[in-house]
Structure formats: C-alpha cells, structure tokens
Amino acid sequence: MHLVTKVVKGHEYFYLVEKARQGNRVFTAQTVYIGDRRRLAEMIQLSASTVIPTSFAPQSVGAALALVRVATDLGLEPLIDEICPVREGAAPVGRRLLLAALHRVLAPRHENGLRPLGRFYEESVLSELLPIAATTLDDRRMGELLGSLTARQVERIEAAVVKRLVEQEAVDTQALAFDCTNFDSFAGARNRSRLLRRGHAKSGRPLRVLGMGLLATVDEGLPLLTFTYPGNENDVTAFRRFLRALDRRRAAFELPLEATVAADGGNVSKQLLLRLEKTPRYYVMRLPPHHLGDLPRLPQPELPPLSGSLKGKVWGTKQGCLVYGTKRWVVDVYSRRMHQRQLPGLRRDRDRARADLVELQRLLQRQEQGLRQAKPLTLKAVRRRVDKALSREHMAALFQVQLSKGERAPILAFTEPEAAWTHLQQYVLGRTLLVTNRGDWPPEQIVRASRMQSYNERAFRELKDPAGASMLPLRHRRDPALRAHALVVVLALLLAKLVQRRVKRAGTEARSLASVLGPLKAVQRARVQYGDDAPPALRALAKGAWIPSAKSPRQQELLRALGLAERRELGTTLAERLSPKTARNRPIKPSQDS
C-alpha cells in the first residue's frame, strides 16, 4: 500500500491505496480512507506507541556471577552438605547457607536480613544460577536452620572450607594476624543470650554486644579462623579462646611451625606469652611501655635507620631484655609517619588543656575578688577540675600544676616545662615497642610482621561496612543462631575477598572490596516490557530476551579478569538469538557419539 492525497472541495484527505496486476493491466485492488492531516498524525502516533517499551525490569548480574563462580570452584556446597546431611527430598543445607551468604553481600544493608531473602532470590539472577524452591528460603525456615546448627557443626564447616581454601588457592600461612572486635546488638535487658553482653562497645554506645575474634592471612586478609565470644570479655580472655580454637584447628589445616602470629598490645599478658612459647609458637606483639620496666631507650635522633622498604620511613633497634621476668626480644621502633599523624592531635589537646586551666584561673580570681556569684570553689573541687582538664593522653606530663589555699579562693598556678615536650617528641610520639621470640629475625622483618594486623582491621571495617559483607544489624537473639549468623557472614566475606584476590592475580587494580563489588553490581541486564497494544510476537520475544547494560571500561576490565566477559547471563548472546543468519551460519559441534 502507498499513501495517496486527494483534494475534495478545497480540503485535503488521505487514503491508503493498494495496487494489483492482472496480466498487463494494473488496477486499484483496495482503498482505505484515513481522513485529514490530524487523523493521519493520530494514527502514526498510535502505531509508534505500540512498539515503544512501557518499562523495563533491571537485574544485577556481575557480582552474583563472580561470587557464584568462586563458590563453585571452592566446592562450598558439597563441603557443607557432607557435614550437615538432610533427609532425602529435603532442601540441602549447603545451598541455603550459600544463598544466605550471597544475599548478605549483594543486598543493601536494610534488606540483608532473612525476611527479604526469598523475594530477593526470586528477583535476582541467583534463581537461574542456583535453583531451589523459594519456599525453603522463608525467614521462618531459615531461622530454624540457623538455630539448629550446633557449635560443633559451625566449627567443622569453617574448618573444612579453610582447609579447601589453603589447598586449592595456595594461601600463604607463614604470617598470620589476630585481632578482635565487637558488634552492637539491640537485644533487650531480659535476653538470656550468653554471647550478647554489655561490655566495652567499640561504638561507645551502652548496648549489648557480640565479640568476635579473627585470624587472617597477609594474603589479602583471608579469614582462616573466627569465633564468637561474650561481649563483656576483655582482649586477654579472647586471646586465650583464640589459642584453644587454634589448637583445635590444627587438624583442619597444617599450620607450619614457623608461622608467626601478630597481635595487638591489648592481648599481652605474662601467662599468654608463656603459653605461646610452650607450644612453641612464634609471635610479634605490641608491648605497652609501662609493661616493660627499665629499658635503656635511645632518643629518636640516635635510633639507627631500618633498611629495605622501610628505609627513610622507620628507625629502630633490637635488644634482648627482661619482659615479665623472662628474657625476650624487644624492638623499639620510631615511625616518622606515625609521629606526624599524632602531632596535630597532641597540639589540639594541649591547647584545650591550657584553655581549661586559664579559664579555671579566671574563675578563681573572680572568686578571690568577690565578683563570682556562684557556689564557691573549694580546693577539692578545683583539683577535680584540674584532673578533668588533664585527663587527655600525655597532658599530665606536659603541665605542672600547683594548688594552694587562699583567703577567699584556692590559688592555681601551672607551667609547661620545655623538657616534657622534648621528652614526648623523642621518646613517645611515633614510638612503638614490639616483643617477640623471633630472635633470628632482623628488626626490619619484625616491624613488617607487626604491620600485618592492618589486614584484620581492614576486615573488621568490611564486616561493619553496609556496602559489603556486613555483620550488622544483628537480628538474632539466641546463641546458636548468632554463631551460625557469624558463619554466614564470614563465608560471605571469604567469597568476596577471593573475588578481589583473583582480580589482583589477573593484574587488575583492586584496592578494596568496594572498588571491585561496586562496579560488578552495576553490571546489569534488563527485560523490556511492552503494553497490551503491542503485537503478541513482540511481547513474546521481549519476555524471553535479556538486554545487557552498557559497560564502562572498568566493568569490562573486571569481567575479563574474572573470566566472565562471555557469560550467557550477561546478555551477550542476545544478538545471536535475534539474528537468524548467525544461527544458520554457526558450525555444528560434533557429538560425542560421532
């Protein structure tokens, strides 16, 4: 058909005319009246709207593909199913725990609980990658599953996964770092949990907290051993728990005898060092200066510089001395970067303390002159205010305060000895004491080992980061569920860190989990949706086809590094499915029978 214009009584009208041929004769086979220009425009607009999509349904695929690939290569599901068998026909525990761990990484923080798990699974690519009945992911059933896992099963699952990890991924276990932290919980006062206790919360809030200890490798900070403990226990008690857990874990993976554990100074005590040396185990731990006693220390300008990668940055000396009555090796370290970072805070605290003392002098002078109308300050009250003004670190050493009685008010005088400031600069700021039983190591190697603890601190930040495998919020109130919840989160963190590790191994930049998972989560595919006016064939085609999102150079680089660039789930085969020529020209692979 073609469009024909006719003018009738001065008005322009449009017709669709279809021509036909009969022999050598051409004639008009059909004429369809359209109307004037306005009617023609309405028809064109209506026909165009039927082929324009009304909406689209996006779905994130990049991060899910990467995490599932790592979990499959690690054989996570069979390991868990072997430890937690179920009756025939029941949903396997391995897949349910794996989906809970993946949900913890992929979902935003406000939706990372058990209640949205089923809905998230049905709407995500996980339903295609890891098929399972959505009813088994109901929050009630998942809660029952977590609550039914015993402490022994949780420990065996983690031990089996770590053993497979060390064997398959060639993880370096020569140097390990231990640290502990706690997580806030909003459990009520009547809660009977032994793990949720009111202790010294890292957040500073007076809540019930859950303690967690973590042993990580220097190889990307992979968690090798985790355990939960009551939140009101101190670091020394937590370290004892760690040593008992490490003894049990030796059967899971062969920890080399020369492995060195680095820990913070809060874990140091006389009994723990004796126990570490009895096994024997090598350690590098920070030592609080007041634990050392009389050690001849060199001023900062006289410390010898360290060599290697620490040259020009760190100075230190190693010497044998008595620590808790036993001869051990102590390294006195000075870091210029640490000094520069501490100095602004110290100056700020000094200015605040001086301002508080000057203000207190002004109030006492007004009281002496009879101008102060408030309650008179006594000598005891002034001493309390002075102690509060000097309560910040190092302030008591920087100020010398003299208090005496006066006629109407106490007399306050203070000085700032220059020698005290010089002593801080040369012996305190930027200085760290390290105690170790590595007498064969040079100071450079001991300092590098002590810095391994930064991997634990980074892992704890990631466990509290809403964008990653977050441990928070804690919605469980019973101890078995809390232990299983910690297992799920640790599995999630392990999978995410393995993705980051593989990206690094491929030569691609991966400074943090967020720098890897963020771009991968933004790799999406979408299903286009048409209205009821669209042709049925077009709606059927859109229902079964995925449209890939445009990928940035960073996303393409990550997908290539992980070997996912050609995965079918990314929508890369959409053009092949829509092109009949490609299907006809594609070579047929010979079958195995031929």
Topology:
Blueprint (H helix, E strand, L loop, with lengths): L1 E7 L2 E12 L2 E11 L1 H13 L5 E6 L1 H13 L1 H8 L9 H14 L10 H7 L2 H4 L9 H10 L2 H19 L5 E11 L11 E2 L9 E10 L5 E8 L4 H15 L10 E4 L6 H9 L3 E5 L27 E10 L2 E10 H33 L10 H11 L5 H4 L1 E5 L6 E5 L2 H11 L2 E6 L6 H8 L2 H11 L15 H27 L7 H9 L2 E6 L6 H8 L3 E2 L4 H9 L12 H5 L1 H6 L9
Parallel strand pairs: 5-9, 9-10
Antiparallel strand pairs: 1-2, 2-3, 4-16, 5-7, 6-7, 7-8, 10-15, 11-12, 12-15, 13-14, 16-17
Helix pairs in contact: 2-17, 2-18, 3-4, 3-8, 4-17, 7-17, 8-17, 11-12
Description:
The chain has helices spanning 37-49, 62-74, 76-83, 93-106, 117-123, 126-129, 139-148, 151-169, 235-249, 270-278, 336-368, 379-389, 395-398, 418-428, 443-450, 453-463, 479-505, 513-521, 536-543, 553-561, 574-578, 580-585, and strands at 2-8, 11-22, 25-35, 55-60, 175-185, 197-198, 208-217, 223-230, 260-263, 282-286, 314-323, 326-335, 400-404, 411-415, 431-436, 524-529, 547-548. By secondary structure, it is an alpha+beta fold. Among the domains are: 1-49; 287-436, no CATH class. Strands 5, 6, 7, 8, 9, 10, 11, 12 and 15 form a nine-stranded mixed beta sheet that branches. The longest helix is centred in the middle third of the chain and has 33 residues, at 336-368. Residues 573-594 have low confidence and may be disordered.
